[in-house]
Specification:
Elements lengths: L2 H8 L4 H9 L2 E5 L4 E3 L7 E7 L2 E7 L2 E8 L4 E2 L2 H6 L6 E4 L3 E7 H10 L1 H27 L2 H12 L2 H4 L2 H8 L3 H14 L1
Antiparallel strand pairs: 1-8, 2-7, 3-6, 3-8, 4-5, 4-7
Helix pairs in contact: 4-5
């Protein structure tokens, strides 16, 4: 996805402000399996996904629990590092060869001081991240596994081809066996 589209998806700004923000970015290519963020480390960059798909996970009792999946147009950020300059709890792994736009957090903070439009863009970015987290939490708490799977199919059906099923099961908050049962039941209904 084009960086201008990503920026404007978060919050529209005057062209001069967008150009100032874009001038601070670099473009990097990373291989499948590369870990963009590592648990226990402070991340000093914010990443925007031009091409590829990623997952964020935490280790619990030796198991990787996927709690977020990002794709073209999404932002990769360790909010704990971004907000508090503290070590993040998550690992973010590329699930495909990927192209990312990279923005150093310190450069972004300087832009916040210089340009009110970019500062407002940053505020809107934080608000959207909070809203997405809230929506995800509500989904996990108040919908069934089948309802979550149906929503995934409706909104992101291509993930079935792009992400291993065990990662999708974890993302849905269920076991791979439960996901297989739900998928089998859905095929019978069709």
């Amino acid at each position: 996805m084009d960086i201008y589209g990503i920026i404007n998806k978060i919050y529209s700004m005057p062209e001069a402000s967008i150009n100032k923000l874009v001038a601070s970015l670099s473009t990097e290519v990373y291989p499948k399996g590369f870990r963009i963020l590592e648990a226990g480390k402070i991340e000093r960059n914010v990443f925007f996904i031009k091409k590829g798909i990623v997952r964020a996970y935490v280790l619990v009792d030796g198991k990787e629990l996927t709690f977020w999946i990002g794709r073209e147009g999404d932002t990769i950020v360790s909010l704990k590092s971004y907000v508090n300059n503290q070590c993040g709890y998550e690992t973010v792994e590329l699930m495909e060869n990927s192209v990312l736009y990279v923005l150093e957090r310190n450069d972004l903070y300087e832009l916040f001081k210089e340009d009110i439009h970019i500062a407002n863009w940053g505020r809107k970015f934080a608000e959207l991240e909070f809203l997405q987290t809230e929506e995800r939490l509500i989904s996990l708490l108040f919908s069934t596994a089948t309802e979550r799977y149906v929503a995934l199919l409706k909104d992101n059906s291509d993930l079935l081809q792009r992400i291993p099923l065990e990662c999708l099961a974890s993302y849905l908050g269920i076991t791979p066996v439960s996901l297989s049962r739900i998928r089998a039941k859905m095929k019978q209904i069709r």
